[in-house]
Write a structure and sequence with these properties.
InterPro entries: Glutaredoxin, Thioredoxin-like_sf. This protein is α+β, with helices and mostly antiparallel strands and about 80 residues long. About 40% of the residues lie in helices and about 20% in strands. The chain contains three helices and four strands, in the order βαβαββα. The longest helix has 12 residues. The mean pLDDT is about 95.
């Protein structure tokens, strides 16, 4: 069973939309969290980025958070965690 993926982003962000598309095109299970609708999520991305607001962020399983990962980076991370 592949590791659970979490995508932190915003509905208006083109990079967030692209990563959502990546997961959906591959029929991969992921949880999307809109950081603009959750103070807890906003704090989580600040914690991942030394206090700065940067997204999209992807966390796969217990792996290291990835800021705006490319499809190739996601492929590699999923292979390692899957």
């Amino acid at each position: 069973m592949p590791a659970k993926s979490i995508l932190y982003g915003a509905d208006w962000c083109k990079k967030t939309i692209a990563i959502q598309g990546y997961f959906e095109e591959r029929d991969l299970d992921f949880h999307y969290i809109d950081v603009e609708k959750s103070e807890e999520a906003m704090q989580a991305i600040k914690d991942m980025n030394r206090g700065r607001v940067r997204f999209p962020m992807v966390v796969i399983g217990e792996g290291t958070p990835m800021k705006n990962p490319s499809p190739e980076e996601l492929d590699t991370a999923l292979e390692e965690k899957g």
